[in-house]
Design goal:
single chain; about 475 residues; Beta-lactamase; D-tyrosyl-trna(Tyr) Deacylase, Chain: A; 2 domains; five-stranded antiparallel sheet; five-stranded mixed sheet; 13 helices; about 30% helix; EC 3.4.16.4; Peptidase_S13; D-alanyl-D-alanine carboxypeptidase; hydrolase; Beta-lactam/transpept-like
Length: about 475
């Protein structure tokens, strides 16, 4: 789009967005006059929630990269398909028989994964089953009278596909915590922490701890101490592979500086934690942790751990923009509808669901559930249509709206809460390289309720400039 044309559109935008009010703010002057935005693609749609009148639109039917606002169609579809009270479950069971005299189990302990993304999650530390996890699991084995296991710890994660990360995630992402893939047995957010000690600028760093312990992990540390005060260290490595290379920089002269990485095989971490905890309780384990499919007909249940309700999971997911949770929702939809959890099937079902609600899904390209893939595309119109449906037609309307952060909360911490009093703004952000998007609900000073989607792709310059512009636009919209 040429700069002159874009400037004209912004002028038109201002004449519409404040409903005839004279605009005193010059909040977009820098945007309009900055050549860095001449080649940007800007999609905008603002709609009255009650009348569905279009207040303003620009490129509303253009497919654009959404970043994490893709979590809106995913979380909304999950609430509609699975229900807000839905819970994941993980089971601990055993095969064979227990000798009542010796306590010897002539069989295996089996972990049956149910796709729960919250198992041991730090986002749910206060959720009772997690507060004593995995101790309650260990106690259930001891309470069953087992003092020795002659077999293995079997990990049954067969309800999900073996491929944990979507096809189109990039190399720079998948080794880091936000690129953790969804497994049928996920634990501790499928993440581990690496703590460094840094030195003078330009000098190598040293790894001083890893938590939790990951068996078979090999870290190649190429991280350098830097004058830059940001975390610019990235972990590179494939899923299921223990060798990881860490490159980049961290701030100089730090006694401790911690980054987060994705676990190669979360199920193995849980299995090994279980073995270690049982041995500390005096339970002997003769076998090892292995992956396999269990025979439910011969298993005896020791413990079933259920997740928080989906309403709680979706709220944390949208507030904190947790990719792992969104990927689990996509796979779980596939599992519940088709009996097998795969990303491709899950996102296909999400798209199919929205088409069934009358939304035109032409130009909607879903590669994952979270928005991390650069190959995702959706239009501002489609995003707003989903927002309209959830507000006006869904029995889960309140749960969905409450899952969106307000200014000062979660990933919307960059917006000033004083500019949006009384909960007037609830929205989801999305960002990646050259992508910044916002979508959600806004209540104006006169009580008018709006749904909006703002999508910016392929812009040069800083994200902070775009953020400031979007915030000011939303402030002016609020002043109805």
């Amino acid at each position: 789009m040429k700069l002159q044309t874009f400037s004209l559109l912004i002028t038109i935008f201002f004449s519409h967005l404040c409903f005839g009010q004279e605009i005193k703010s010059n909040c977009l002057n820098n945007f309009i006059n900055n050549p860095a935005y001449a080649n940007s693609e800007i999609g905008l749609l603002v709609v009255d929630l009650n009348t569905e009148e279009i207040i303003f639109e620009n490129n509303a039917h253009t497919s654009m990269v959404p970043g994490s606002i893709l979590k809106l169609p995913t979380s909304a579809a999950a609430l509609e398909i699975l229900g807000e009270h839905y819970r994941f479950k993980t089971e601990l069971a055993y095969s064979g028989d227990i000798n009542p005299e010796s306590g010897e189990l002539a069989g295996d302990l089996v972990i049956i994964g149910g796709g729960d993304p919250t198992l041991g999650s730090e986002y749910f530390n206060n959720y009772p089953p997690n507060s004593n996890f995995p101790d309650t699991w260990i106690d259930s084995v001891v309470a069953a009278g087992i003092s020795k296991v002659n077999g293995n710890i079997i990990l049954d994660g067969t309800i999900y596909e073996g491929q944990t990360v979507p096809n189109t995630w990039i190399w720079e992402d998948i080794g880091n915590y936000y690129g953790a893939g969804a497994s049928a047995i996920s634990v501790y957010d499928n993440m581990f922490r690496i703590t460094f000690m840094s030195a003078s600028a330009g000098e190598p760093t040293r790894i001083i701890s890893i938590n939790p312990e990951v068996n078979g992990l090999e870290l190649v540390n190429k991280v350098i101490s830097s004058n830059d005060n940001r975390d610019l260290a990235y972990v590179f490595g494939s899923p299921w592979v223990g060798k990881k290379i860490i490159r980049g920089t961290i701030p100089k002269n730090r006694r401790e500086f911690t980054i987060r990485a994705s676990m190669p095989e979360p199920g193995l971490v849980l299995g090994n934690d279980l073995i270690e905890g049982l041995r500390e309780k005096g339970v002997e384990i003769k076998g090892r942790v292995v992956k396999g499919k269990s025979n439910n007909k011969v298993l005896k249940l020791l413990l079933e751990q259920k997740s928080p309700r989906l309403s709680e999971i979706v709220k944390v997911m949208n507030h904190e923009s947790i990719n792992l949770f969104a990927e689990h929702l996509a796979k779980q939809i596939a599992y519940e509808k088709n009996g097998y959890g795969s990303t491709e099937t899950g996102v296909g079902l999400i798209k199919q669901f929205w088409a069934g609600k009358g939304i035109d899904t032409h130009g909607m390209f879903l590669e994952d559930g979270s928005g991390l893939s650069h190959f995702n595309a959706i239009t501002p119109r489609q995003v707003v249509d989903i927002l309209l449906f959830m507000k006006n037609s869904s029995s889960h309307s309140r749960v969905f709206e409450n899952s969106l952060p307000s200014p000062g909360e979660g990933t919307l911490y960059v917006f000033d809460p004083d500019n949006f009093p009384n909960g007037s703004l609830k929205c989801k952000s999305g960002s990646m390289t050259r992508v910044r998007c916002y979508a959600g609900y806004l209540t104006t000073d006169s009580g008018r309720e709006l749904a909006f989607s703002f999508m910016a792709n392929n812009f040069e310059g800083s994200h902070q400039n775009i953020i400031s512009i979007i915030e000011q636009v939303l402030i002016e919209l609020r002043k109805d």
